[in-house]
Design a protein that fits this description.
alpha/beta, Rossmann fold, Dihydrodipicolinate Reductase, domain 2, 2 domains, about 20% strand
């Protein structure tokens, strides 16, 4: 986040929606406050709602800080009502872009951000193309597409074909805000700049890899949407498999978008498929049930507004899989994600193998299991767990922590993920954006699981009380004598009971 970018206009479709107000406008203000936006820059909001420029600017106030810079920032915001029924509906948008470019002396470099329902992902690019806005010999044109990028393998493939009719692959930025998180990006630095980690990052020294992404909230009024999505589509297929790519990839030749994305693609292509008849042994799904949390009665998922009373949509999913290559052969990868779990946390846990001959491994001395925990959120940081002698006579061993927290860098601010990703797109850096072939490869792994759930009613969906760590049968995915890490809000704490 250093270099200045070319002058340009960002067009946000769906500008009256929640994502624009809560995330995109505040992220742009963060970039503005840090003097990272181009010298000449504008935002043109577009949606069906009949708003004026002033109306759009007033709506932005709700999610912007009380800061003296806000008034100047809002002068960069403009609005154009656009219907999405025909190419003719986009003529006023094209004209307005020309007016803003001329008035503010901004080159006609445009980024189009689709913060809209997925049903419009194939429609808007078509109308942009028909108005000559998708290509230019003189200026750049880019398209940012929000998730979900398809709801099945087939729909993802069809959407890729649609988009490539109007924009080339190097113009398309499929955004996944998880990859914009500082701690996910730091995975590459942790691995490839430290001689104490990379030589151990393989099947000889690592017993298993565990990734947890939990939310303490439920569906929060989004039951109607979530009941057609579920944890597999909402979290695992996109966010968490992208994290797996960063954990498991080989070192790229250079720190450059295609080199890095080529390596993550190889990871997805190497994941051992889970066949439909293998799903019950490798994948567990669950739904949260009514519970009492801290003296407050909490609804079960099927009692949430908008949710089918007989719903079999998963609010929790855990799975075990393998990556069939030389580095990771026979190392289990365990992923779990869910709603109404004990705390909000996302982290990666590298479980190292025990030493070949453990002198202090008996119950007399205590047990040591080395772990490297990379915390993505909250309390971002890195924790290493290792054995130390307990003071006193004998050789009793206890596990101790050595940790680093990003909050310790008092002069540095962890940037918002959307701010980072927006700036990358402005600068033409696609490193942290998903490529079409990688999206399809991730869907190829997930699709047989979804097919099995749809066609085999005998595959159970387990209930788990809200506020717990999911169905008890999840422990069956872990080898005998092992257990999941139970993280807390604080990086250095773990246990079955964490504050919500």
């Amino acid at each position: 986040m250093m270099k200045k970018t070319e002058n340009q206009i960002l067009v946000i479709f769906g500008a009256s929606g929640d994502l624009c107000k809560r995330k995109l406008i505040p992220a742009l203000f963060e970039l503005y406050s840090q003097n990272l936006l181009p010298d000449k820059f504008a935002v043109l909001g577009a949606s069906r709602s009949p708003l004026s420029d002033d109306d759009f600017r007033k709506r932005a106030d709700e999610f912007l800080p009380k800061d003296e810079k806000v008034a100047e920032f809002k002068k960069l915001l403009f609005y154009q009502a656009v219907q999405n029924n025909s190419a003719e509906d986009f003529v006023p948008l094209k004209n307005r872009l020309g007016e803003i470019s001329e008035k503010l002396e901004i080159e006609q470099n445009y980024i189009f951000y689709l913060s809209t329902p997925p049903s419009l992902y194939g429609v808007i690019p078509k109308f942009l193309s028909e108005n000559g806005l998708s290509k230019s010999n003189k200026y750049f044109r880019k398209l940012i597409v929000e998730k979900p990028f398809g709801t099945t393998l087939q729909s993802a493939q069809e959407l890729n074909v649609q988009l490539l009719n109007y924009f080339s692959e190097d113009q398309i930025y499929r955004i996944d805000h998880y990859l914009g998180k500082e701690t996910v990006q730091n995975m590459l630095v942790t691995r490839f700049s430290n001689g104490i980690f990379e030589p151990l990052w393989n099947r000889r020294y690592i017993e298993r890899v565990e990734i947890t992404s939990s939310e303490s909230l439920g569906v929060e009024g989004r039951g109607g949407y979530y009941d057609h999505s579920g944890a597999m589509r909402d979290m695992l297929q996109n966010h968490l498999l992208q994290v797996v790519g960063f954990v498991a990839m080989e070192a790229p030749i250079v720190v450059e978008a295609n080199a890095i994305r080529n390596e993550t693609l190889k990871v997805f292509q190497s994941i051992r498929p889970i066949k439909e008849n293998e799903v019950p042994r490798h994948v567990i799904r669950g739904q949260y049930t009514e519970s009492n949390i801290g003296g407050k009665q909490v609804l079960g998922y099927r009692d949430e507004p908008g949710v089918d009373k007989h719903s079999r949509t998963e609010t929790f999913v855990a799975l075990k899989f393998f990556i069939d290559n030389w580095r990771w052969a026979d190392v289990p990868f365990l992923i779990r994600t869910g709603k109404k779990l004990p705390t909000r946390v996302t982290e990666i846990v590298i479980h190292f193998k025990n030493v070949p001959h453990n002198l202090f491994g008996s119950s007399e001395f205590g047990n040591t299991h080395n772990q490297l925990i990379i915390r993505i959120q909250p309390d971002e940081g890195i924790l290493l767990k290792f054995g130390m002698k307990t003071p006193g006579a004998g050789f009793k061993v206890q596990t101790v922590n050595m940790d680093f927290h990003y909050s310790d860098l008092v002069d540095k601010k962890v940037p918002d993920s959307y701010a980072r990703l927006l700036l990358d797109s402005m600068q033409g850096d696609a490193t942290l954006y998903a490529r079409g072939d990688a999206v399809e490869a991730a869907w190829k792994f997930v699709q047989p699981i979804l097919n099995a759930w749809k066609t085999n009613p005998e595959i159970p969906i387990y209930g788990y009380p809200a506020g717990t760590w999911g169905p008890e049968v999840t422990d069956q995915l872990v080898s005998k004598g092992q257990q999941w890490r139970y993280p807390c809000k604080n990086l250095t704490n773990d246990g079955l009971y964490c504050e919500l």
